[in-house]
Predict the 3D structure of the following.
Amino acid sequence: MKLSEIKNILPTLENVQFQLENGKWVPEHFHVTEVGSVTKNFIDCGGVIRSEKIVNFQLWNANDFEHRLKPHKLLQIIKLSEEKLGIEDHDIEVEYQDTTIGKYDLEFNGKHFILKNKTTACLAEDACGIPAEKKNIKLAVIKKQNSCTPDGGCC
């Protein structure tokens, strides 16, 4: 989800709620302690230099159990970050501490925000020697063919 999307969604909500992909809720008394812009410059395993920019939200739980962040207040924090930090319209990554600090993609299901699990991936598969995925073929299918050719995928 891009920053512009959350800015369009927030005015339509009565409450801001976040839920992890596994169904667990972020407690209602969370705070957004950071809104920032993060630039990551790196080199992949194939030697390609890359750059990535994201908007970062950090969620935090305190002992003030009566705290509730309202949509208009989060929108004010976002607007202030745009004015003071020059934050641009990039994808949002949410930091939230469950058992450890996790980084999540953000989606909206029409009612509340979902913290989507992130995964790692090789960005240079062709350059770092990852073998191509082999096609699984059932032996029963090969038996029905009555023959196996060198390029038939059965050997």
Summary: The longest strand covers residues 30-43. The mean pLDDT is 89. The chain is about 20% helix and 30% strand. Residues 3-124 form one domain.
